[in-house]
Amino acid sequence: MYQQVEILENKEVTRDLYHLKLKGCYDIKAGQFFMLKKEQSNMTLFRPISIFDVDEEGIHFLYLVKGSGTKVLSQTKVGETLSIHGPYGNGFPILDTKACLIGGGIGMAPLYLCAKHNPDAKLYIGLREALYTEKEIQTIQSLFEGVNVHFKIGGTILDDVLWEEWETVLTCGPSKMMEAVSKQHDNTYVSLERHMGCGIGACLSCSCKTMLGMKKVCKDGPVFHQKEVVWE
Known about the structure:
Blueprint lengths: L2 E12 L2 E7 L9 E5 L9 E8 L3 E7 L3 H7 L6 E8 L10 E6 L6 H7 L4 E6 L6 H9 L6 E5 L14 E5 L2 H10 L3 E4 L15 E4 L2 E4 H4 L2 E3 L7
Parallel strand pairs: 7-8, 7-10, 8-9, 10-11
Antiparallel strand pairs: 1-2, 1-6, 2-5, 3-4, 3-6, 4-5, 11-14, 12-13
C-alpha cells in the first residue's frame, strides 16, 4: 500500500542529478529502494529509486534524470507530495569486516549509507570526466562529506583499489564495471539494476538469471553475491 509523503527538498545538484528528500520516519537498510510516483502526471508506473541517506526528518534519494518518469520527479516542488511504497529489497549485508565500496556513476547513491554505517569502509567513486565540469564534480564530492571516500574522474576506478587490503567488496554501477569488480575479488556483493513495475515480485519484469535459477531483482535482490550472478 502506498502513501502520500511531503517533499522537503528536490534540488538539482548538477546537470540531471537531483537530491530529493521526503518527510517521514523509516526503518531501512542500505541498498534498499522505494517505488516513487507523482500522481496526476504522465507517470503511469512507479519508479524504483535507491536510498541515499536517512535522518531524523526523512529519507534522501540521489537520482539521475534518464527518462520521462524521472523527468516528472525532477519537476516536483517542495511542499508537494509523492506517492511512495517500500522499502523493498534485501539491501547490502551488515559487515563487521574491512569493506571496500565501489560505485560507478549514479551507482554511488546507495553506497553512501553503507559507508556511514561502517567506519572501516572506504568508498571509491568513478565518474566520467566528459559528463561534468570541475565545479559540478566538487558539488558531487560535497555530498559525501563525513565518510572515507576517494573520487576518480575519468579512467577506471578499479585501478585505484588495493584489492588485497579488503575482506569484502560491495559494488553498484554499470554491469560491466560490476562484472570486472567481481573478477578482482572473490567476496563481492553486487547491486543489480533492472526495469521494475511493482517492486514486490508480482509483475516479473525484473527477473534475472542466476546460478540458482531465475530470481526477481526487486524481491530476491537487488543485492546478490557474485557467485550467484550470471553475467550476460
